[in-house]
Write the structure tokens for this entry.
Amino acid sequence: MLFLVWSFTETLCAQEPTNRNWDAQKIKGIRLFPYPTYEGSPFLTDTWRPGKLEFATGDIADSLFMKYSSYKDELIYYNKEAAAQINIDKENLIGFTFTDADGRTRSFRKQHFDNSAKSERYFEILSSGETSLLAFRKVELVATSAYHDMNGVLKNMAYNPLYQFYFFSPEKGYTFVRPSQSGLLAKFDTPLQKPIKKLIRKSKIKIDSEDSFVQAWQVVEKAGYKVRF
């Protein structure tokens, strides 16, 4: 019962679009089946965020409020006419953008991932260029030590972020990269690593976060260095 109340509250918190430059009937999908409640969150953002969709047809639907499910790699929006949370059919989308709580525009695009799993995924574009830096915002449900939730129910599962980062080239595909200085240097031939490290230091960048990692990559890319795939 409590979970149903939570789901209903989430629905009520979804705000209406301010500009109806879209037709809700064209946004194909199914009602969201509620996720189980555990510690952590299955969503990338805790609140509904304003954004827009880009369809495979080239149409744009804007002024929607949406959430990205990192747990299922699904995009959810609130359909006011149906009074429901809708899981949008991935096959109909090219990508989407939304504005986060800090005012940043975050862009995602659907791409075929051809490494270990043959599937289409939503990747966040951290840096776009000849070689793009992408993030797959994966969250997994993992076993944990037993704990009691806020209602005293004993549980032993939690949502755990396991974000994955890739360099991507349309010609060469994907290569995994760890978001650290050593991870970045490892993507270049050995003779280039020392001058790249010097360039990062000269640019006064200390790679200790995702943002600083992206900043360092952009400096290295601008200097003309090429990632080894």
